[in-house]
Amino acid sequence: MSVAETCYIESKCGMGTFLRVMSFTKENEHSFTPIWEVFENVERLCSRFSSDSQLSLINKMAGQERVQVDEKLAKILLAAQRISAFTDGAFDATVGAVTSLWSMKPHDVKIPTEIEQKAAESLVNYRWFDIKGRDAFLAKEKMKLDLGGIAKEFALHEAAETATKIGVGSAIIDAGGDVCTIGAKPNNRPWRIGIQHPRRAKTLLASVVLQNWDTVETSGDYQRFIKDGDKVYSHIFSVRQADVSEKLISATLIYRRQHELLPINGAAFIASGLAKSKAFLEMLPNVEAILVTDAMQVFITEGLRGYIHILPHQMRHQTFIFNRRAC
């Protein structure tokens, strides 16, 4: 690697995951501190595990009174509402009553009873959450917001925007496998991103050249889960589960980011299943996707043709290129 291509890397833990910034900008020319501050600020606002976060205050005041929130949190909540409406609740930010029943920590596993889960599910309905300006309100007592499916993406996009503003011209920001790139690699080479194999640890399913895109998001049932006998419970919760015959275990979205987040996320794809996910993609012509079913069938939008390489493995899988107009 030449001097011009020297890479500078900083890593931290935050937002419940591993964060990394890798930059080809000259050493010490720019501090990564403003980038880290973005993640820290979003986590302070959105953490459901911190009793003094603004999100926790909204949950505490559920069914009682409105809560004025920070402008940034208001933006995140509005984005969550847009995703909830677009997916008709496949992603629902009010799922917190359900997720708070579970613990997937290695030394603190908690699995709720069916009665507990049914009671919590009765409190999940994004239509009972209201955000006007900077005022937020949950309509029913014991309702809870959980922004785990969106806060990290918001922070990642804002971190990329911040990096650009402070003059970082060539970098990649990785937030637990979700990636934003800034500029191109040295010599104007495009970035190549690996996609995790959903059933083989530390193994890639594919690699994608980001010739026309700068953002990659991946959700999968393998990222956090617990086992109880023969049952496996994923960290992706939804009150509506897809039919077993079209179950998705991994969903990767590839696109060029805009000022607003997409009206959908990977978790909604996982919860919706293959057929509904194809229907979503038909409404999102600028989003490419890699969808993997439980039967290890890999579905790829045709816009990725020529930019994606499916890696060979001992585990066989079928690969299909689909035209979203035919979905």
TrEMBL record:
It is an enzyme of class 2 (transferase). Mg(2+) binds at residue 149. GO terms for molecular function: metal ion binding; transferase activity. Magnesium. Can also use manganese. Its cofactor is Mg(2+); Mn(2+). SUPFAM superfamilies: ApbE-like. Its EC number is 2.7.1.180. The keyword Transferase applies. It holds the Pfam family ApbE. Keywords: FAD, Flavoprotein, Lipoprotein, Magnesium, Metal-binding, Transferase. It catalyses: L-threonyl-[protein] + FAD = FMN-L-threonyl-[protein] + AMP + H(+). InterPro entries: ApbE, ApbE-like_sf. It comes from the Bacteria. Belongs to the ApbE family. This is FAD:protein FMN transferase. It comes from Pectinatus cerevisiiphilus. The lineage of its organism: Bacteria, Bacillati, Bacillota, Negativicutes, Selenomonadales.
